[in-house]
Design brief:
Elements: H1 7-15, H2 17-22, E1 29-33, E2 45-49, E3 54-59, E4 62-67, E5 76-82, E6 86-100, E7 108-114, E8 118-126, E9 136-144, E10 147-154, E11 159-167, E12 170-177, E13 182-190, E14 200-209, E15 214-215, E16 219-220, E17 229-243, E18 252-256, E19 260-267
Antiparallel strand pairs: 1-17, 2-5, 2-19, 3-4, 4-17, 5-14, 6-11, 6-14, 6-17, 7-8, 7-14, 8-9, 9-10, 11-12, 12-13, 15-16, 18-19
């Protein structure tokens, strides 16, 4: 889903990347990633995966994430995570294409903010054969401890756009409705009511699932179907108020319902 777009915009972002990544800004600024370089930009991103059955790699001008058929466990997946943090209001968007997407595969693919205490996501999801949700959906899910605020919308889209937004203490998930030509809101959550959001957050583009995760009172959570899933992401854009200087990438800690914090393997540099 490469835009016909403005090539000068990409050049501007590329030429100014050192400034964007090392000088916090009080005014809104934008980072744009179209994965068109010879390798993943290791200054901005690090790849992660739970084990060798999942992978994330820059291929053919896109980020392709694979969840292999042999994946198993309470949490697994792969993707890229920012080497920087954002502070204050932000907006993150990304295009996606379902490259290999078996029916009722149990995978979520999308964009997230992550922190040891909270997480939030906007995703394209395939449900499982027995779960309470419809088979193919857009989903927003905002978690604070073990509180989950979930909203869904049934879809048949094989490609589209996702948006995740923070304004103050309120986070909101959106998907782009091609029929109306506008963003459609999924759900919002005000973290001020449940302890507040951290000032600084790390952002993520990923696909993930579970094969044996259970939550008390809910049973098995949308189990993985054991079939290979591949999703391509493109045109990731992050508009932010303040960005941290690039540190050495920290370990990825993911908040998983029923499990608490789960560590993911991280690979540094380009792929």
């Amino acid at each position: 889903m490469k835009p016909a777009g403005n090539p000068g915009f990409s050049l501007l972002i590329a030429s100014c990347c050192a400034i964007l990544l090392h000088a916090p800004s009080a005014a809104a600024a934008t980072l744009f990633e179209d994965f068109s370089g010879p390798a993943l930009n290791g200054q901005w991103w690090s790849t992660w995966n739970a084990d060798a059955n999942q992978d994330a790699a820059q291929l053919h001008g896109q980020l392709e994430v694979t969840v292999g058929a042999a994946s198993v466990g309470p949490y697994f997946g792969a993707g890229i995570t920012t080497n920087f943090l954002v502070k204050g209001d932000f907006e993150m968007t990304a295009d996606y294409t379902l490259v290999a997407w078996p029916n009722r595969n149990g995978v979520r693919a999308g964009i997230r903010f992550i922190d040891p205490a909270v997480t939030g996501q906007t995703t394209r999801q395939s449900g499982d054969a027995t779960g309470p949700q419809s088979n193919e959906i857009y989903l927003s899910n905002f978690q604070d401890g073990f509180t989950m605020d979930v909203a869904t919308s049934v879809t048949a889209d094989g490609m589209g756009r996702l948006k995740l937004q923070r304004v103050g203490s309120v986070t909101t998930g959106f998907f782009f409705n091609a029929g109306s030509g506008s963003w459609q809101t999924l759900g919002s959550h005000d973290y001020l009511n449940t302890g507040g959001l951290p000032d600084w957050l790390r952002l993520d583009v990923s696909a993930w699932s579970h094969s044996d995760l259970t939550i008390a009172g809910s049973g098995l959570v949308h189990p993985f179907a054991g079939q290979e899933v591949r999703v391509a992401f493109d045109n990731v854009q992050i508009t932010y108020e303040t960005m941290s200087a690039v540190p050495m990438p920290a370990p990825v800690w993911l908040l998983v319902p029923g499990l608490g914090l789960v560590a993911a393997r991280r690979r540094f540099g380009s792929t």
